[in-house]
Amino acid sequence: MEETVSLDEIFQLLKKKWALIVSMMILGIITSTAITLFLMTPKYSSETQLIVQTKNADANINTDKINSNLLLINTYKDLIKSPSVIEKAKDKLEKSGMANITEDYLTSAVSVEQNQNSQLFSIKAVTNDPTESAAVANTVSEVFQEEAVKMTETSKISVASKATPNNKAVSPNKKVNIAIGAVLGLIVGVMFALLGELLNRTVRSEEFVTDTLGLPILGVLPLVAEREMSEIRKLQKNALVNEDLFLDVSNVYENSLHTEIDGLDLDLRMTEQLEER
C-alpha cells in the first residue's frame, strides 16, 4: 500500500527530532572550525600596482594611444607568467636568500588583475607567508618591466605602488567555512531524522494501523512501565514456587492474587489445571 506523508507530518517529525538536528549542526560547526584552524594553511596576498604610460610626455594623448596601451596590457598579462619572466624571477629570489622556489610554484602563486578599461593593473602573489608574497610580487614586477622594455618603444611601465607584507590572511575564510559546516550539519541531521522514520517499521499509534495499514483494531494493550513489569514477574515467580499452589487435586481451581504497585491495583488471576499423576 502506498504511503503518503504530508508536510505537517514532516514538520512534526523534525520538531520531535530537534535535539538530533541541533546536535548535528553543532557537530558540523565544531568540525569545520577544527579543520579551518588546524588543517588548512593560511594564505597571504600582496600586490604590486603598475601603470602603462606613453613614453613621450610631450606627445598628444588620444583615444587611439589609450586603446593601444589597453591592448598591450593583455599582452603583458601573458608575458608576466611566461617562462622567461618566471625563470629570471626565480633566480633573483634565490639570490636574495629565498630557497626551495620552483618555477611551477611561482606560476601558481602569481596572478594578474586589471579593472575594465583601466591602464592600471596589478601583479598579485599568494603564498603561505606574507613577507614571501611581497617579495615574489615585487621581484616578478621588476623582471617584467625589464622584459617589457624590449617589446615596445612607445609605452613605458611605471610602478604605482610596491607590494608590502599583509599579515591578514586571505584564506581560509573562517566565517564562510563555519557557515558551511552549520548548513551541512543541518542537512545531515534532517536526513538522519527522515531516514530513521522511514526505516522504523514498528506500530506507533492506532491511527497508523487504521489509516496507513487499513486494518481494524482488535485490541489495545496498556503500556506498563518496566519497573511495574519487573514487580509483576517477581510476583509470578513467587506464586509458582509457593507450595500452596501445587495441591494434589484433579479439578480446576483458581487462585487470585491481588497486589498494589505504585498506587496501581493489579489483579493477577491464575488458572491452572493439574492432572492426577
TrEMBL record:
InterPro entries: Bact_polysacc_biosynth/exp, LPS_length_determ_N. One of its GO terms (molecular function) is protein tyrosine kinase activity. The keyword Cell membrane applies. The keyword Cell membrane applies. Pathway: Capsule biogenesis; capsule polysaccharide biosynthesis. It holds the Pfam family Wzz. Residues 4-93 form the Polysaccharide chain length determinant N-terminal domain. Belongs to the CpsC/CapA family. This is Capsular polysaccharide biosynthesis protein CpsC. It comes from Vagococcus teuberi.
